[in-house]
Design goal:
Length: 128
Amino acid sequence: MTTYVAIVFSNDQTVTDTERQVITHALFSSGCRYGVFAGHACGAWAWALDTSCIESNPDQQPSNEAFTMTTSHKAESVEDVMFFGLMNTSFASHEFDRFLVLFVGPRAGLRGEVQKAIKSVWSQGHVG
């Protein structure tokens, strides 16, 4: 399974705990091993991905390969969130070269801010 970092911007305040758990379970099941969460209820999003990881093993002891890190970034700029997600998420045996940016709910201009932030990190020579 190819592993990756999910950078999630939550803009929809109507997402329920059940919906959040379904989304994070799908992320975990598809190989997400680091979740970077920003926006509304970012701590709840991180907790939901942590829960998906823990529940992946009947004894609630996930393997090293399944182990998943999470961070929440309340009130941080899009550029700071993207920099962290692209540059500071490798750990232990996990060296990531695949990234998913997920928008949960609309926010005017967010896509452009994310694209600008990615270009900024690339232009600094950090990502190639």
